[in-house]
Amino acid sequence: MSYQKTIKNLALTIFVVWLIVFDFRIYQEKAFAADDAEDIKEDIEKVQSKAEKVKKELNTSQTLLQKKNVELGVTKNLLQKTQSEIGRKEVEVNNLNQRIKLSREMLEGYILEAYYADEDPLSGLLLGDVRDYGMSGDFDQILNVKERIVLTLGEIKKAKEDVAKTKEELDSKKEDHEKLITIQQSQQVEIKTDINQAQATLSELNAKIDKLKSELSSLLTTAVSFKNVTDAATFAAKVTGIRKDYLLGVLVVESNLGRYTGGCNFKESRMSGYRASVFKEICNELKYDYNKQKVSCPPKGYKGTGGAMGVAQFMPDTWAGYKSSIASVTGHKTPDPWSLTDGVVAMALKLTKVDGVKEHKKSAEAKAYCVYLAGGNWPAYCDSKGVNYGEKVLYWADNYERVMN
Fold first, then answer.
1. What is the dihedral of CA 53, 57, 58, 62, to 10 degrees?
2. What does the pLDDT read at residue 274?
3. CA 325, CA 146: separation in Å to the nearest integer?
């Protein structure tokens, strides 16, 4: 009898230890999967921060480019005006040359006319004494015209020199404008290169953000609205006697108000053996493709498997143990772990197994969540040495609306 009793005690001890390890592994699987989501969120925040910095740099470059465009436009207008002025001065020079040519031709004509009249006005002009020639009144008139022509030639020559000088200054100004345009265009090219690089970097960062968000969406789904969650919690509270706000607090900590439902498929979860067969059976009963249903991922910190399902994150074999209880409460012949109502009811049923929860005792509620996490090892999660998950749930029971969005 003593030997049989020893065997029974040993078997009971092994069973209890197995339950503790089993429940603890379930908790760790969910915890590591949740950590995955947090890691992705942190990565998204880091990339978004870098993207914002690149956006600011891009905006600065684009503003600078706009400024350079204005400056270049002003310089081009100045160059155009200078070129127009140069053109006008060139026309003036040509006109003055024509006047000089015409005046010279007139002077030559008067001199020839006097010469052919048997006069020698040229030598007289050179000697400076016209009286010796007995010039007639016509010659005096010719002389006066000649003086005016010579005077005009001097004026035209001076005007031509002034115009040439102005044109030279305009040519220098034009050259300065052209050099400035070259510099401004070079600056534009550099700024545009910076903009293109910033846009390419921003595109890469946005692509990375989209990828991270895609990865996160496999862990977090926003398909469940806050109203859906509160409706399910209200129903579960009514049929099980649990406090609605407490249940919502558990949902915040456990699954971010129903947004966390697992990020791996069956193959990725590495489920095997009995658990895998139960999972396939559950999916088969619900007409789901077991290869496509989302479950928790394998833990990173130790060797194990994923496979927790739905908002309650029950393992397939744990869910199988609650199926009949869930069905009796919801009236659903085949409870669905991915159904919000069935999942929240399953959660409520497990939590109310701790005495005092239905009476809404805070100490019992704190303990119940720690038991929910770690089974028989619950005291390690409800002490003051580390994170007191029981108190954490009670806090969110009063503040769950903060994460409703």
1. 150
2. 93
3. 132
Question: Candidates 2.60.40, 1.10.530, 1.10.443, 1.10.10; correct CATH number of 220-403?
Answer: 1.10.530
Which residues, in sequence order, are bridge partners of residue 314? 309
Q: How far is CA 186 from CA 71, 193, 405, in A?
A: 13, 11, 50
Supply the pTM of this predicted model. Answer: 0.47
CA distance 35 to 28: 10
Task: DSSP for 92-150, please give it.
Answer: HHHHHHHHHHHHHHHHHHHHHHHHHTT--HHHHHHHT--GGGT--HHHHHHHHHHHHHH
CATH code assigned to 56-217: 1.10.287.1490
| Other Cβ atoms closer than 10 A to 136 | 12
User: pLDDT tens, 168-215?
Assistant: 887 888 788 788 888 888 888 888 888 888 787 877 777 666 555 555
pLDDT tens track for 91-142: 877 787 777 777 667 667 666 665 555 445 444 444 444 444 444 555 566 5
